[in-house]
Amino acid sequence: MSVALLLAALAGSDPAHADEVDDLLQIVERGSSGERSRALARLGFLGSDRPVAILSRRLDDADADVRAGACRDLGDLGRPAATPHLVRALGDDDPAVRGEAAVALGAVRDRRAVEPLARVLRDDEPRVRRSATVALGRIGGPATERALSTRALEETDAEVLVAAAEALGRIAGRSALATLRTLAASRDAGVRRAAALALSPHGGPAALPVLLELLRSDDGPSRSRSALALAHPAYRASADRIADLLSDASPEARVAAGSALAAQSDSRGLRFLVAGAHAGPEEIRFACAEALDRMHVPEDLSDDLMRHLLDFPTTEWDRLAARAGRP
Predict the structure, then answer these.
(1) Which residues contact 220 (CB under 8 A, 6 or more apart)?
(2) Distance in angstroms (rounded) separating the CA atoms of residues 56 and 68
(3) Which residues contact 19 (CB under 8 A, 6 or more apart)?
(4) Which of 36, 105, 161, 280 has an alpha carbon within 20 to 30 A of 140's alpha carbon?
(5) For residue range 311-325, what is the model confidence (pLDDT) as tens digits?
(6) Rounded Cα gap, residues 152 and 19, in angstroms
(7) Distance between CA 225 and CA 219 in Å, rounded?
(8) What's the CA gap between 135 and 253, in Å, rounded?
(9) CA separation for the pair 110, 124 (Å, rounded)
(10) Measured between alpha carbons, how far is residue 114 from residues 97, 98, 137, 145, 163 in Å?
(11) What is the pLDDT of residues 17-58, one digit of tens each?
(12) H or E element: which one contains 179?
């Protein structure tokens, strides 16, 4: 690498893009919010840290809206060079700025931010704690798991706990799952639901009562999510409860139930998906065919049912059916 190229790389810009970087920086300085966001995303893609100096100065502005906007812009840039400035903004007097700083750190995903964000989990403002929780979930790692698992057992705000459950479900380490089992017994229905759905991919028995409770929900999407969550082999004993949803008023819930049963190798689910892909309403057809596309149709599926699907009159269904039937 030539000295010129090396110096350009250290400066965070490639000479081949120098003019473009200069133009983008002008947009960062003077553009609208949407224009700045697009320009910063491009600058981040190009690997330029030059906007950090411009934006970090705005973190000292007297106007809290300007400071919050600078945090958002640094998050859009997504460069690790922004981390020290955003960490400083976590201590801003205005909770909106602290929250935006946390969100931006989640977008940057720099592990140096884990400890500062963990301290923000004790912020006086629930919305700030929630933003820090979401950010930590995006960063991940053992230190994040320890921080979220410990704090979730002390947290009292339901929205923060829902965010913690979702974050811990993505991390899925031993202490994360132990905390989720505790949250699945929460007095708050929203927290129970979030913890159960986070536990379900791991077959957590603590999730089963909550997932079965969700099957009786008045909300179609909730019934649907519960049915899909119950697809885990550990929940085979709940197959009859899931099968009740095959006649649900919600098309989404019916397809979810069929998919869950099929994933458990229950012939009721396979039959529903095959019939739905062949002759159901349009929204059911596509969803059933896509579900079949994601699984292998077992060899012992009746010839009549296979012909029912393989003879479906459109090329798309034939392709999906053929893929679903591959060994």
Answers:
(1) 248, 249, 250, 252, 253
(2) 11
(3) none
(4) 36
(5) 555 554 445 444 544
(6) 48
(7) 10
(8) 31
(9) 24
(10) 18, 15, 10, 10, 16
(11) 677 888 888 888 888 888 888 888 888 788 878 888 888 999
(12) helix 174-183
Q: For residue 179, what are the CA distances in angstroms to 145, 186, 197, 198?
A: 10, 11, 13, 11
Query: Quick check: 25 and 58 in contact, CB under 8 A?
Result: no
SS3 call for 110: coil
Burial class (CB in 10 A: 0-12, 13-18, 19+), 109: middle
Decide if 53 is inside a domain. Answer: yes
Split into its structural domains, the chain has a count of 1
DSSP type of residue 280 = S
Q: Is residue 199 part of a domain?
A: no
8 Å CB contact between 182 and 210: no
Answer for the pair 40, 47: CB distance below 8 angstroms, yes or no. no
Q: Is residue 105 part of a domain?
A: yes
Helix (H/G/I), strand (E/B), else coil: 149: helix
CATH code (residue 104): 1.25.10.10
Task: Give the residue numbers spanning the domain of 87.
Answer: 1-124
Among residues 137, 129, 181, the alpha carbon closest in space to that of 158 is found at 129
Are the C-beta atoms of residues 168 and 179 closer than 8 Å to each other?
A: yes
Question: What's the farthest any 2 CA atoms get from each other in the chain?
Answer: 74
Which residues touch 279 (CB under 8 Å, ≥6 apart)?
none
**Dist CA 158 CA 192 (whole Å):** 10
Cα–Cα distance between 311 and 232 in angstroms, integer?
A: 31
Model pLDDT, residue 139: 96
Please report the pLDDT score of residue 105 as a whole number.
97
CA 37-38-44 angle, to 5 degrees, is 90
DSSP-assigned states of every residue in 191-236: HHHHHHHHHGGGT-GGGHHHHHHHHT-S-HHHHHHHHHHTTSGGGG
Tell me: pLDDT of 279 over 50.
Answer: yes
Give the pLDDT confidence score for residue 99 in this predicted structure: 98
The reply to whether 110 falls in a domain is yes
